């Protein structure tokens, strides 16, 4: 597996006359790029520490978003009419 610069891929894709944008055509374009530039592509090996950190960040983000959504949609507890006047002897 190799990582390709998105700008470089866009430039490669725009060389042709057609501007078709489908998943099938994208797959063909990427494979053609690999065939044309196989000698420049480097194997990509993800570092385990980076992968673990990204997993942790993803979990933390999902947890935070779940807590935020729950806090927005939870009903507000019923308060007595004069809850703010407790000191005045309501």
Layout of strands and helices, then pairs:
Layout: H1 6-13, H2 23-36, H3 48-73
Written description of the protein model:
- The protein starts with 5 loop residues before the first helix and ends in a 17-residue tail after the last helix.
- By secondary structure, the protein is mainly α.
- It has helices at 6-13, 23-36, 48-73.
- It is elongated and about 75 Å long.
- It is built from three helices and no strands.
- Among the domains are: 6-36, no CATH class; 46-75.
Name the beta content range. Answer: under 5%
Total strand segments: 0
Mean pLDDT: 79
Structural class: mainly alpha
From the N-terminal CA to the C-terminal CA, the straight-line distance is: 72 Å
Largest sheet: none
Q: How would you spell out the order of helices and strands?
A: HHH
Gyration radius, in Å: 27 Å
User: Tell me, what's the shape?
Assistant: elongated
Which residues form runs of ≥5 with pLDDT under 50? none
- Number of helices, where a helix is a run of at least 4 consecutive DSSP H or I residues: 3
- Helical content, roughly? 40-55%
